[in-house]
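Encode chain A's predicted structure.
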Amino acid sequence: MGQPDVIVVGGGLVGAACARFLALRKLSVHILDSGDEPGAASPAAAGMLAPLAETAAENPLLRLHVRGRDMYHALAPDLKEETGIDIGLWTEGILHVALSPDEVGRLTDEIAWQRQMGFNVDWLAQDDIRNRYPSISPEALGAKLAPEDGALEPVPLLKAFLASATRHGASLTRGVRVEALLTEHGRTVGVRAGSETFTAGAVVLAAGAWSGRIGGLPRPLSVEPIRGQMIAVDWPTDEPPAIALAGSGYVLHRNGDALAGTTMEYTGFETSVTPEGMAQVRHAMRSIYPTLEGATVKRSWAGLRPGTPDGQPIVGRDAESEGLWYATGHGRNGVLLAAITGEVIGQLFAGEAVEHDLSPIDPGRYWRT
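Encoded structure for chain A:
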């Protein structure tokens, strides 16, 4: 194999998406992945596509989030046809439940400004909730419904992105832990992994929570791991499938299970499941679905999200080190933004016009003086 145009460091969802969209543009791509990293975000994620169900008016990336969600409507059938993999796209909406008068006020305010922006959101009164979701907490005073939000299955999506990338000529090497970037005369020319070196025309750093730990970066990269703990129990009997949020927690139906989460913990690279975390998740779960009180936990796990100081990802070209690109720091939105991050990286590499304002995710925003 000759020297590729691009090395993608990281074979998670974002790295796989970048590889696919680069390969679609006839660039030769080599993905380097460390393997089954404990705490990796992609296999641990719930897979929600919730740009409207959980957001804030001041979010500068709201329209990018919505575009990221909507991309999957076309991608799901395309990936199924191309790879035979069903990514489990679910488009029946997400419910954000108000359990206090303050939450009623906040959510109805959200509905008002989101409608002014042209988005489709609704308010469900208590009777509406009872009719549609009979097991939702009787304490619910109402709920915001984002009918176009949804979810997908992260592991099939990852497999589909990788399969598509390799079909279009990308190569994948697993079990390679990249330790440092290689630079020559201010240009990134490859990476070092143990005693091996891999060279390329450019490097895309998409190593999730581990991105900032790679040596040879031109300056510190503000990406830190944020642990999220989750559990799975049986879905409530006779309850229709749903995704419901309340406060900082959620319950999501998938394949007969109720997936509940999640915590936001700054514990470094510690990936253990803790009694305190499980108690927090169970509290959130039963506040939404009281019928799940005492439900047997079928499995529990934790993942490490790559967080940044301002909560926004770092995507684009390094302003000073030629040949170095970033696609990392997506926090809780890795699934939501994976496809559009890949598309943006592909467009930027190819010199194509990008219709989105990328200034909130520009890598240089932390380093300008």
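The first helix runs from residue 13 to 24.
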